[in-house]
Amino acid sequence: MTIDEAIKILSKPGLSEEVVTAISKYKNEPDWMLEIRLKAYKHYIERPVPKWGADLDDLKDDNIQFYAVPGSKKKRDWSEVPDDVKRTFEELRIPEAERKFLAGVETQFDSSVIYGRMKEKWESQGVIFTDTDSGIQKYPELFKKWFGKVVPLTDNKYAALNTACWSGGSFVYVPKGVKVEIPLQAYFYIQTQNLGQFERTLIIADEGAEVQYVEGCTAPTYSTDVLHSGVIELVALKGARIRYTTIQNWSKNVYNLVTQRGIAYENAKIEWVDCNLGSYKTMKYPSVLLTGNNSKGEVLSIALADGKQHLDSGAKMIHIGKNTSGVITTKSICKNGGRTSYRGLVKVTKGATNAKVKVVCDALIMDDISQTDTYPYNEIYEKLSRVEHEASVSKVSENQLYYLMSRGLSEEEAGGLIVSGFVEPIAKELPMEYAMEMNDLIRMSMKGSVG
């Protein structure tokens, strides 16, 4: 297959073994990656669509273009980026954020990374922050060692789809003892109708290393459905720490089907901060495998469903090592007929002595036509462990509204303030600019929701 033949195949919608082969050919990948892709494709077509969670029956492969050939190569300097792309970045405030405090930026339009930069300070210490396509070419041994080890291709149907069609995403390696003091950043942006975006992110923190990574996701509104199916793998080796933050604001026609999982070795810690404010259907459950003794995991999650949105999200905490600890805190808001679901798993394996885990699920319903559900699964096989689970569902109090309105606020402003207070435990964990962005997005979505 020639490059021109691959481009012709990739320009059409639909998925086949030929399309998967064309992706690998166009990207000039090693044979072992093509082999993995084809195995994943076979698993994807053999595995049924999940019948639990969000309804995915209307999602059809025949309508989706699985790879968009990029119109320009990755740029290194901001002055080299095309003007139309710059305008989009400026709307997202990426350059401003980068100038102020961010260690690096990777931005993915559709299937490819278009702009990448990392501050020289971290590069000089051996930190790798590049797109995943470059990672497989420049660091093949490190890449092959960890790719698919945290999320195997057989994990679920859409992890298999991602493994078959992946393109772009971030590849990060932080050497032993290096602490990246300010966040790395990525933006994922869908600008093509009927497109599937399948970024693959792999972050490895070596022994004693620390890194924070923040991603934003957005898409313009189209009348046709779009698929986003990402896979994120985190590896925190002995004594390492990784925090991964997502601000997801996909337009309300995006199917957002994401697998996020980290593995924490001895004395390591992995944290997920997960903000889901957009999409049509979401199924996403950030997970931590606490394999090492004294390892720690934490998931903080927000979901806001409006109208026809159904956000099925939650977390998984798997305790394997001794003296492990995990915390899951989720906040969900539904309005105008929207539906939120918490779906979580806590598993304490036999031998995971002195495991401690706490789960808190709070839901806020803004009206009488919205719905919230909770599906907690607790599998405890070790008697010497402590597991706590608490959940609450509430509506906006008329007394709260009345009090705030008596202080001069409109009903809409009062409702927005109540919601901001409800999500404050999550917002305070975000970098300042992202907390402001999240609060602005929530405030915009709350217009007309009360009264």
Task: Describe the fold and architecture.
There is one protein chain. This protein has helices at residues 3-10, 17-26, 31-46, 83-92, 94-100, 120-124, 132-138, 140-146, 157-165, 398-406, 411-427, 432-445, and strands at residues 104-109, 112-118, 128-131, 170-174, 184-189, 196-197, 200-205, 210-218, 226-228, 231-236, 241-249, 254-264, 269-276, 281-284, 287-290, 296-306, 310-319, 325-335, 339-348, 355-365, 371-380, 385-395. The protein is α/β, with parallel strands linked by helices and 451 residues long. It has two domains: 3-284, no CATH class; 398-451, no CATH class. The strands form two sheets. Strands 3, 4, 6, 7, 9, 10, 12, 14, 15, 17, 19 and 21 form a twelve-stranded mixed sheet that branches. A hairpin with a 2-residue loop joins strand 1 (104-109) and strand 2 (112-118). Helix 1 crosses helix 2 (17-26), helix 7 crosses helix 8 and helix 11 packs antiparallel against helix 12. The longest helix is centred in the C-terminal third of the chain and has 17 residues, at 411-427. The relative contact order is 0.08.
The fraction of residues assigned to DSSP E strands is 35-45%
Q: Count every beta strand, where a strand is a DSSP E run of 2 or more residues.
A: 22
Structural class: alpha/beta
What is the end-to-end distance? Answer: 61 Å
Average per-residue pLDDT, rounded, comes to 82
The general outline is: globular
What is shown here, in short?
The protein is α/β, with parallel strands linked by helices.
